[in-house]
Every structure is written in C-alpha cells, then in structure tokens.
Automatic annotation (TrEMBL):
<dbReference type="Pfam" id="PF02127">
    <property type="entry name" value="Peptidase_M18"/>
</dbReference>
<dbReference type="InterPro" id="IPR023358">
    <property type="entry name" value="Peptidase_M18_dom2"/>
</dbReference>
<dbReference type="GO" id="GO:0004177">
    <property type="term" value="F:aminopeptidase activity"/>
</dbReference>
<keyword id="KW-0482">Metalloprotease</keyword>
<keyword id="KW-0645">Protease</keyword>
<keyword id="KW-0378">Hydrolase</keyword>
<keyword id="KW-0862">Zinc</keyword>
<keyword id="KW-0031">Aminopeptidase</keyword>
<comment type="similarity">
    <text>Belongs to the peptidase M18 family.</text>
</comment>
<protein>
    <recommendedName>
        <fullName>M18 family aminopeptidase</fullName>
        <ecNumber>3.4.11.-</ecNumber>
    </recommendedName>
</protein>
<keyword id="KW-0479">Metal-binding</keyword>
<dbReference type="InterPro" id="IPR001948">
    <property type="entry name" value="Peptidase_M18"/>
</dbReference>
Length: 470
C-alpha cells in the first residue's frame, strides 16, 4: 500500500481551494504600477482632446492612420496583416486587422462606446429672460440633474448651415476661453427646493445654460440681449439662429482630466464611461501584431440612449462591416458571426463604501481590483441582459490568467437596487459570444468620475490578450 501523503494544512487548503480577495496592488509588481501610471498619461491626453463621440472618432482616425490603417473598401481584397477602418458618419468607427486565418473561424471584437452623458440643446434653444441670455437644453443619457448645475461647461459640436457647409465649434476648453454654466438657487432661499425628493427637485426645463448678459447698444430694439449673442456667434462662425436647427451641440463639463489622491493612484475626469474602455480598446488594436483571427475594435455612439439609431450598435452598421469582410474572403457572413467572440467593453460600478447599502460586497468590483467582468447585466431578474455562456467566461478567464491580467468579477449592485445594460445584447443577438468586461468607476455618470490607473492599464492588457490569443 502506498504511503499516504502528508495532510495539507488548512492554510494550504485555503490557498488551493478558496477564492481570496486581495487588493490588486499586492498582486502586481512595482514595474506594472509604473506602466499603469505611464499608460494613464496617454489616457488623460485622450480624455482632454476627445470629449464627444465625434471628437473621439477624429482622434481614432488620426491614431489609426499613424499606425498604417486605411479607409475600408468593400471591393478590395485584403491580406493578413492589412489594417482598415470604417468611419460611420463621424460618430462611430470600426477598426480591423485582417488575421492570418482571416475571418473564416470568426472575428474577435472589442466594442466600447464613445458617447457620454451630457447636456444637448433643444432645436430652438436661444432665449432671453430678465436681461440674461440662455440656451434651453435636453439632457442626453442618465444623469442626476442636480450634479450638472453650478459647474463650468464647455460647448462642443457641429452646425450645418443653410448652404450645407458645416462649422465645428469648441468653446471653453482653451485657456482664456469663456465657459458656460447652469445656475442653482442659493441655500438661503432653497427651502422649497430642499423639501423636494432628489429625483424631482430639478426638471429638464430647469437646465438652462447661461450664455450672456449684455445687450446690443440700442434701447429700442426687441430681444437686444439675445441679439447681441447672435451677433457674436455670427461674427465668429457665420451662423444665424435658424442654423441651430441643423446642429448637434453638446455641453460637457469644462474640467480637465487630473490625478486624484496624494498617491496619484486615480484619475478624475468627465466621461470615463466609456472612454476608459474605448481608449484601451483602441490602443489594443493599434498595438496588435499579426493576429490569428481578424480582430475588430468598435467605438460606438448612442449607447447611453439605448444603442438605437444608425450610429448605435442596435443598428446594422457593425454587422454590415463584418459581412463585407466575410464576403471578400468568400465566407458566408452568418457563419462568421456565429463563430465570433466579443468583449463588450463597458464600465461597471466600483464599490463605494459611502453607499454600501446599494452593493452586495461579495459580488462587487473594487477600485484597484483590476478589470471588472460581469457575466450578465440587466435589472429585475436579469431583464434585458445577454447572460454570457459559462464556456465563454471560462475561455476569457484562461486568457486573462495566462497573460497576467488582473481581473475581478462582480455585479453592478444589489439585485433589487436597479441595474443597467450595455451593447452586449445587441452583439450577442447576432449569435456572437459576448462578455461584459470593463473598468470599475466611482461616481458613474456624474460630471466628474473616478477610476484607478491600475484598472485602466489592465483594461489595455486584457483587451490586447484577447486579440493576441493564439
Ligand atoms: Mn457605459
Ligand atoms: Mn453609462
């Protein structure tokens, strides 16, 4: 009879069998921390130069062309290693590198969104009231309205003039630029407001942006204050009031991205959701060399309003792009899609001890815990989710562990507390295997959100490992 092996100690057993929770800092070397800090310098520069979906696409096109990507031509025959991009109306973009196998065994997709919660204008926005000039707005995405008052705002966007020419606008970002703001009542007179529930204390019609207070010098003329603003806009951009009808103007927080904390471990900025996944997904494809399967990074618009519309992923634009790639290789698009895999790269909630009652601590994602994996999203009994298949979760686990990617798994919050969705289901509905993976965020959807530098870097490492897997 063989000799019985010495019994394992409880400590050894625990190490082997249990799932320990350890701060990510202790799982990585100082060298990795340094790499994370360095990576985030590039990320902060991206945050400051691309605050809207259009600016993010412009950024991606420039970066892609520098790395040898060319505009996609569906009639062209591509060879392994060729790099292409498809710019969808300047608001969404697909970038692809043709794999050694092409797309016959499926493609690998990383999909992030580049639209952020913000303040849009109504079609007829301009008015004056008590000798001040304002813009009426219609907010975009899920915001807590009170957070958007009494902060500096910048104006970004595009205006299509009557003659069809377009004007780009960006005011409030350069030093010395004027900025804008939505005013709030002083606490001394805020008794009525303070008595209201948070959700109804501010209405959409309260969010008007202050843009001026001086009239044209003529005491007889009507709308002299509004006219003075239009006079300035006409001088600068050659536009008239009616041109604001054919415009997409977005007011966003005028803050710059900045380090947070004495240890500089965090980044505070507007619009981490979801540029904190978009930037790593872009960097992952820019730095991907000779993939086996064709890899695609999709940076999409309209996630924050439900992905509908022709620049959102509930439309066909990504499917058409993949179909064109497939057909150029003589493959049936639906067969390619059915074998494809995808990381739905979107943020998740980071556990916040001040609101502990909204989270389930054991199944939450934590700052510095690494890339956050969510097997499913949705609300009220997983409503509206595409619950990833265990086999695909298993595959991603192996890829991440083999590549030294720090990752964690969690849910957004407590089961009955609410919930949310991502683009995952729209891609999964094409018969693609999809898993939600992204960076944990504090103060998500606030004008100023916070993420961990280590987690941002792990997003890059994770998405790259997914593309590089043999
Ligand atoms: Mn998001
Ligand atoms: Mn969001």
């Amino acid at each position: 009879m063989a000799k019985k092996a010495a019994a394992k100690s409880a400590k050894e057993l625990a190490e082997e069998l249990l799932n320990p929770r350890k701060n990510g800092f202790f799982k990585v070397s100082d060298e990795k921390i340094e790499k994370a800090d360095k990576f985030c310098e590039g990320y902060k520069a991206f945050l400051d130069s691309a605050k809207t979906e259009r600016e993010s696409v412009d950024y991606a096109v420039k970066a892609a062309e520098k790395h040898g990507f060319v505009p996609f031509d569906p009639k062209h025959q591509y060879a392994p290693g060729d790099k292409v991009y498809y710019n969808n109306r300047g608001k969404s973009i697909c970038l692809a590198i043709i794999g050694k196998e092409g797309c016959k065994n499926g493609v690998r997709i990383a999909a992030a969104h580049i639209d952020n919660p913000r303040i849009d204008l109504k079609p007829i926005p301009l008015y004056e009231s008590t000798e001040m000039v304002y813009l009426k707005t219609h907010y975009y995405g899920g915001i807590k309205k009170y957070q958007w008052t009494a902060i500096p705002l910048a104006m970004h966007g595009v205006i299509i003039k009557r003659d069809g020419t377009s004007v780009q606008v960006c005011v409030g970002e350069e030093p010395g630029d004027p900025q804008f703001t939505i005013t709030d009542i002083l606490p001394h007179l805020g008794q009525d407001q303070a008595a209201k529930p948070l959700g109804s204390a501010f209405t959409g019609e309260d969010l008007n942006i202050l843009i001026g207070s001086r009239p044209v010098r003529d005491e007889e003329v009507k709308d002299a204050y509004k006219l003075n603003v239009m006079r300035i806009l006409n001088e600068k951009y050659g536009i008239v009031e009616a041109d604001l009808i054919s415009a997409e103007i977005e007011f966003v927080p005028a803050f710059k991205a900045t380090d947070i904390g004495f240890d500089r471990s965090l980044v505070g900025a507007y619009g981490h959701d979801d540029r904190v996944c978009a930037y790593p997904a872009l960097e992952a494809i820019l730095n991907c060399k000779n993939p086996v399967q064709t890899v695609i990074t999709v940076l999409t618009d309209k996630e924050e309003t439900g992905s509908d519309g022709n620049t959102g992923l509930n439309s066909e634009y990504m499917r058409y792009f993949i179909a064109d790639l497939a057909q150029a290789e003589g493959e049936e698009p639906r067969h390619v899609l059915s074998k494809s895999t995808c990381i739905s790269a979107d943020v998740t909630a980071a556990y916040d001890p001040h609101y502990a009652s909204a989270y389930e601590a054991q199944n939450s994602c934590y700052i510095n815990g690494g890339l956050g994996v969510a097997k499913y999203t949705g609300s009220r009994g997983k409503g509206g989710t595409s619950d990833a298949n265990a086999e695909f979760v298993g595959k991603i686990r192996r890829i991440f562990d083999d590549a030294g990617v720090l990752w964690q798994i969690g849910e957004l919050g407590k089961v009955d507390q609410g919930g949310g969705g991502t683009v995952a289901k729209y891609i999964a509905n094409l018969n693609v295997d999809v898993l939600d993976i992204g960076v944990p965020v504090l103060s998500m959807h606030a004008p100023f959100e916070v993420v961990s530098k280590l987690d941002v870097y792990m997003a890059y490492k994770g998405f790259k490992a997914f593309f590089d897997e043999k």
